[in-house]
Amino acid sequence: MAGYSAERLSHLFNALNDGIIVMDQDRIIVFINPSATRMTGWELGDWIPYCRFCEMREVAAGEERCFLAGQTDVSYFESELPTKDGAYVSVGMSRTFLEPARDAESRDMVIVIRDVTRERQAKELELRARLNRMTLEVQEQERKRISQELHDGVSQSLYAIDLGMEHLKRHAPPRFRRALDDLRAQVKRCSREVRALSHTLYPSLLFDLGLSAAIRMLSEEMSTDRCRIEVDMNKEWPGGDLGGVAIHVYRIVQEAVHNAMSHGRARHIRIRMTCLEVCEVEIVDDGCGFHTDEIKWLPGYGLKNMRERASALGGRLEIESEPGQGTRVRVVFPNPLG
After folding, report:
1. Torsion angle of C-alpha atoms 281, 285, 291, 293, degrees rounded to 10
2. Which of 185, 202, 219 delimits the end of a domain?
3. What is the pTM of this model?
4. Contact, 84 vs 46, CB < 8 A?
């Protein structure tokens, strides 16, 4: 390379994240950069053993055991390279050859190695996140189906029963009318519970009017004489259709509020929602609280579901709590509108 001194090239090779190993025909290292040494422990002058694949593969008489050295049409593959301390590191290896010196009969082989462990872990995390999102989508579709069946099936049947008992009451003897009134009252209560369950399973308001309206309606529905729920939402909070973001945020808030009321016995819950460069949803209650190091031992699927939904948002979930000091649930995720 014109204009590049040996010193500058050496500095370049030493600065690379990929490992570079140059070995002669006897597999003696004649050059190795720091990255390769960090990955393998091998140093200048060491004899480098074969990778695990080459060690174990069957070779014909006279065939080169080193797969990359003996191939003309393959210059990259992945295997496990032995380290100096006897362990193995998973690497991707690229091979080329240096032109031999005038008085040399063989060419030195250059191997560029890259630790693929992190790449595999990243791919596994990406796959896990994708499966998580697909699982949550299937769950929401199933919730929607059950909600519609409750609304179109059970609710309509209860309404028909109520009409039938009203008709019976008009023709029943007076001694049966009070009993029919009691039965109709039970049917109406059951109908209200079915409607509430249907809404919990599939909050149609979320998809009709958006997340802001759905959160406010949730707070109104869940507020009681014992527990008051307030919603504080900044003006920058994105409106409109947020797609999958909306349902994940809604479910996290729904779960956090339910936990605060059912388990924390909270009297006041505050939901704060802000969205600038990143979006943040915070649910703070004045309930009994708990030790956060006991979270992994707590029963139920709720906390796990909240974490999975935060992950599906590309964000993180934080839970802060102390016995007698209430609980703070916070999820932070990228602004879906950029």
Report:
1. -10
2. 202
3. 0.59
4. yes
